[in-house]
Amino acid sequence: MLRYDSKIYVAGHRGMVGSALVRNLQQKGFSNILTRTSEQLDLKDQKATNDFFEEEKPHYVFLAAAKVGGIQANNQYRADFIYENLMIECNVIHAAHLQKVKKLLFLGSSCIYPKLAPQPLKESYLLTSELEFTNEPYAIAKIAGIKLCESYKRQYGCNFISAMPTNLYGPNDNYHPENSHVLPALIRKFHEAKENNNDFVEVWGSGKPMREFMHADDMADACVFLMQHYEGEEHVNIGVGHDISILNLALLIKDIVGFRGEIKLNESKPDGTHKKLLDVSKLHALGWKHKIELEEGIHSVYQDFIQSAYVKMR
């Protein structure tokens, strides 16, 4: 069980996921939080990672460090995504074993599931059929992380667990026009269209695909909950349990941003997977449920976007 004086290492603390974890831990009264930037510690370097763990000896580890990107980046930089993520996972998990870390939580991604798996996606569907090709290298790296935790638990008795979050959004999100995910990309598109008095905003595809979205602060709260209350071998899905169409998401963001023009669907662009909804019954049965609904969450991140993120981009 986490204690308030426990030394907690959050790997990837500057990203959306890692920064949400740090905020949540601090809000709960945990003050002995250990962080390193990628410039200070390259987790792809095995010796550097081992030396860090040997020197600092963290009690608990949240492994949120990863190379991430949207569909275009995943497909274009396939070697980078599989190599860098595998190296980070292998080095951190093995070092945690060597230094007898009390507990580690590895964060994966919902893309680990087969592209044609039944909906909603249950934890048991892992490795039952082929993956979506565009992000297959990233997914394989994340599956390897799950199996590393499972294998170190089985062979050495390490208390290593895994959690698979759904699509996330929140403070410190990526709003880059080429490699961001759909929700932050739409926020930027509608905001810039409003600023420029454009007549319309183009949305890729038919608008019909369904996606589940969770605020990063809810995800972080679920992770801290699992670190305190879950020790099973199987990974746990983290999500809200319901989804929204891309078109309705666009309409919601349009309304929140205050854009008065039209939405034009570009159906020559790909839709991707039609539906990707996580089954979160296991998480609910453990006693945790999300608190931030989508409209409230988008309102808060849009304010964060116009006050800080967008200012930095200009």
Can you put this structure into words, describing what you see?
The protein is α/β, with parallel strands linked by helices and 314 residues long. It is built from ten helices and 13 strands. It has a six-stranded parallel beta sheet, with helices on both faces. A three-stranded mixed beta sheet has the order 11-8-13. Strands 6-9 form a two-stranded parallel ribbon. The protein is globular, with a radius of gyration of 19 Å.
Topology:
Blueprint: E1 8-11, H1 16-27, E2 33-34, H2 46-56, E3 60-63, H3 71-76, H4 78-98, E4 103-107, H5 136-156, E5 160-165, E6 167-169, H6 182-195, E7 200-204, E8 210-211, E9 213-215, H7 216-229, E10 236-238, E11 244-245, H8 246-257, E12 262-266, E13 275-276, H9 281-286, H10 294-313
Parallel strand pairs: 1-2, 1-3, 3-4, 4-5, 5-10, 6-9, 7-12, 8-13
Antiparallel strand pairs: 8-11
Helix pairs in contact: 1-7, 2-4, 4-5, 6-8, 8-10
Summarize the structure in short:
This protein has helices at 16-27, 46-56, 71-76, 78-98, 136-156, 182-195, 216-229, 246-257, 281-286, 294-313, and strands at 8-11, 33-34, 60-63, 103-107, 160-165, 167-169, 200-204, 210-211, 213-215, 236-238, 244-245, 262-266, 275-276. By secondary structure, the protein is α/β, with parallel strands linked by helices.
